[in-house]
Amino acid sequence: MIRVPVSKGLLRLMVRLPAIRGELQIIHGRDQLIRDLTEAYEDAIETLAGLQSNPVSQRGLIHEYETICADIEEEIVRRCAAWRL
Predict the structure, then answer these.
(1) Angle (deg, nearest 10), helices 32-52 and 8-16
(2) DSSP letters for 21-51
(3) What is the CA radius of gyration of the chain?
C-alpha cells in the first residue's frame, strides 16, 4: 500500500464535509483525481483568504473563488459517491 501524505486541502475538506470524512480519507490514498482536487481546493482557499483581506476592491474575484471552492466540494462529494457504487 502506498502512503500518501495528508495535505492541508484534505484536512480542510474533512472539516468542511464531515459526512464523508472517513471515506474521503480512504479514497484520497487511492484516487489521484481526489488528490489533485484536494490540492486545487487548498490553492483556491488560500487565494480566497488573501482576497478577503481587501473585500471592497476584490468582490468579483471573491465571488469567483467562492464558486470555485463550492464546485470542488461538490466534485469531491460526487467522486466519493461514485466510489460507493
Answers:
(1) 80
(2) HHHHHHHHTT-HHHHHHHHHHHHHHHHHHHH
(3) 14
pLDDT in tens, 22-40: 999 999 999 999 999 999 9
Calculate the dihedral angle through the C-alpha atoms of 83, 40, 72, 49, rounding to the nearest 10 degrees.
140
| Enclosing H/E stretch for 81 | helix 59-84
CA distances from 75 to 2, 44, 59, 61 (A): 24, 14, 24, 21
Among 7, 6, 36, 19, residue whose Cα is nearest residue 77: 19
Under 8 Å between Cβ of 41 and 72: yes
The C-alpha atoms of residue 69 and residue 63 are separated, in whole angstroms, by 10
- H or E segment at 9? helix 8-16
The pTM score is: 0.88
